[in-house]
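Suppose a classmate hands you a notebook page containing two proteins, each written out with its sequence and a corresponding row of structure tokens. How would you begin to make sense of it? This section walks through that situation. The first entry is reproduced here exactly as it would appear on such a page.
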Amino acid sequence: MGVSNNVTAVVNFIALLCSIPIIAAGIWLASKPDNECIHSIRWPVVLLGVLILVVSLTGFVGAYWNKGGLLAFYLFCMAILIALLLILLVFAFIVTRRDGSYSVPGRAYREYRLDGFSDWLRDHVTNSGNWQKIRTCLSESDVCSRLTQNYLSADQFFMAHISPLQARCCKPPTVCGYNYVNPTLWLNPVNPTGDPDCYLWNNDQSQLCYNCDSCKAGLLGNLREEWRKANVILIVAVVVLIWVYLIACSAFKNAQTEDLFRRYKRGWV
């Protein structure tokens, strides 16, 4: 029984370590400018990571001090958390599967169309009820102001790999034919009817293209890229957690069997 408990304690410690990259991935996502402006999706990954940390610690204590009740509680809670993490991964993969980006001749960065993303993202992130708050948050951030500090010439800017958010919120659509002055100042469009957003562009630094559909598309492009990167870490973590959970279940079952056998030998049953 002691051997089984030691095995359970070790695998719970591994599960505890797995919670660290999950929490780190969640904090990384939450710290991004776009996620800072979308409060509803900032903290799910961090919360799941913290819960896995607490539950793993409970299982470790239960195994180390031979507390069967704590171990049973750990197995029950960990099964729920792994299921929730799997649901989050599948959901994130589905809603970020479609990519609304397209290449622009003479530009290193890509631009984005709003209708190229999933319906759920469009409806729940950029609907009229949410966008006004998001738009205000973006305009108060340094997402666009950083561009004027980093890129001094037009050629340097056009060959830059800027983020989807910067490519669509901080500048007018390329099809409009605006003339470059600096990354957030554009004048005299030669094709103002090329896109409805051409008329919405404003050189006021608090306006820019924050009212444009293309800005909404850039926000979704940012979200997609960031969640795709975070998913790699989460997939590795959930695979290890499932492996650890199966070992813990087997060790707990062996410990229970050994305990019954020991009690039987002593004549208790």
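The notebook's second entry, a different protein, reads as follows.
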Amino acid sequence: MKKLLFLLCSVFFIGLSACKNETAKSSDEVAYYCPMECEGDKTYDAPGSCPVCKMDLVPVEKASDLASDDISETSIFNLTSTWTNQNGEDLQLEDLKGDVLVVVMIYTSCKAACPRLVADMRNIEERLPKNAKDHLKMIFVSIDPKTDSPERLKAFAEENVMDKAPWLFLRSSEDNTREFSAVLAVNYKKISPIDFSHSNIISVFNKQGELAFQQEGLGVNSDATVKHIEDALAQ
């Protein structure tokens, strides 16, 4: 009888331990965290958005997926649009996978804000270590594809001494451009045949094409932008 009681107690405690392990596992599976790790290892009990970068929180169980070569739902590499660079070569955004992307939307005939955005991009690039630029693309995307042909982009790149890596100039159709601007939360509007009003935003994307940081304004302090680029390059 004592032996039977001992066996029953043993089974009970083994079962209780298994339940605890299973509960812990379930708890881990419903935890959420920021894919950019803005708050380190901090997790949340419910889905939502990161209070720092505003990106959607993801389940902890998907953390290994984010570190792999798979494209997450928030990656710009999911866009299937075709773009043409300043050399007349066609590409898709996914072709840039593996590089950190620093992106700004301009138009080459702009005489006001765009030259200052070009200067801001140059300033950011100059502050980065030279050896980091092997996995970096500094990208200008035209919001005026009718005017900004590949030939015009090439001339603009040469005029600004940006005709070599890591500089890249892109154009596409008006629909593709509008779609991409929506992803970046960049607003623009044609106010005359040769002039646009537009947001002044520089966006940083990590090697998986996920938005890591945005700098807004002209001539602003770029310390945070440079730090996010360096962090993305180190990943």
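A careful reader of the second entry would note: Residues 1-28, 62-68 have pLDDT under 50 and may be disordered.
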